[in-house]
Amino acid sequence: MTIRALIVDDEEPARELLRTFLADWPEVKIVGEAADGAAAIDLAKRLAPDLIFLDVQMPRVSGFDVVAALEERRMPLVVFVTAYDQYAIRAFEVSACDYLLKPFDAERMAATMRRVMARRSEPAVCMRDEIRALLGGNAARDRQLVVKTDGRHVFLGTDDIEWVEAVGKDVRLHLAAKSILVRESMNALASRLDTNRFVRVHRSAIINRAFVREAQPWFKGDYVFIMKSGARVTSGRTYREQVRAVLGV
User: Which of 89, 102, 109, 207 has the most C-beta neighbours closer than 10 Å?
Assistant: First the structure.
C-alpha cells in the first residue's frame, strides 16, 4: 500500500535529507513539500497525505499550529522532525508516532518508518489529543528551552525568562539582562512552558510568577503586574481566571 507523504521544514538541507532517506522506502510517495507552516496547512488540506514529516519550529506558523489546523477526520500520521526536546523524544518512543532528532541517520529513519508501518496496519484514529497531551503536557516542559532566532538555535534556562511578549506573529523573551526576538507564535511557545511557573495573563503576555514583585488593581477587574525588572505587564479580561489563580483570590 502506498503511503503518500508530505515533507515540511523551513530548511532545504533538512528536506533534502528526508527525500534521500525516503528513497529507500518504495512504499512512500512524496506528494509535496513545504518550507513554512502556512503552506503546509494548505498542502495538507488539498493533498490529504497519509504521513507528514513536520518540523516543529518554523517562522510564523509552527508545527504545533499546523497540527491544530488540520481536520480530525483527515488527520495524517505525524512524525515531528526537530533539533531539540529530549523529553518529547522519550514520550514519542511509547506512542504510535515518532520524533526525529536532527541530525539523524538512515538507521534512525528506518526505525521511524517501522513505527509508521505498524501504525498504518492499525485502525485509523484521531491523533490530535495524543499529540497535544505529549507536546503540550509534560513532554516539552523541561527547565531548558531551545528557541530559534536569527537562524541560530539558542538554549535558554526557563528560570531566566521574566516574561514573554507577543510582537506581531513572533514573540519577545524578556530575560534579566536582555531580550530575544523568537520566530514562533505565542500559542506554540506557551505550549512548551510549565504552567506551574508561567501564566498567560493577556493574549500578548505570559509572566514568570517568580519574577512578579507586586500586582496593582487596574480598570474593570484587570491588574498591572510589576516585574522585578520594573516592567509593567497589564492583564486582559479573557485571562482573569488565570490572574485570580496567581493572586490567590
Answer: 207
- Can you tell me the distance from the alpha carbon of 85 to that of 68, in angstroms, rounded to the nearest whole number? 20
Assess whether pLDDT exceeds 70 at residue 34. Answer: yes
User: For the residues 211-228, what does the mean pLDDT come to?
Assistant: 92
The pairing of beta strand 77-82 with beta strand 51-55 = parallel
Specify whether the CB–CB gap between 29 and 23 falls below 8 A. Answer: no
Residue type, position 248, single letter: G
- Topology classification of domain 144-247: OB fold (Dihydrolipoamide Acetyltransferase, E2P) (2.40.50)
With 0-12 / 13-18 / 19 or more C-beta atoms within 10 angstroms meaning exposed / middle / buried, residue 40 is buried
- pTM for the model: 0.53
User: What is the CB neighbour count within 10 angstroms for residue 17?
Assistant: 21
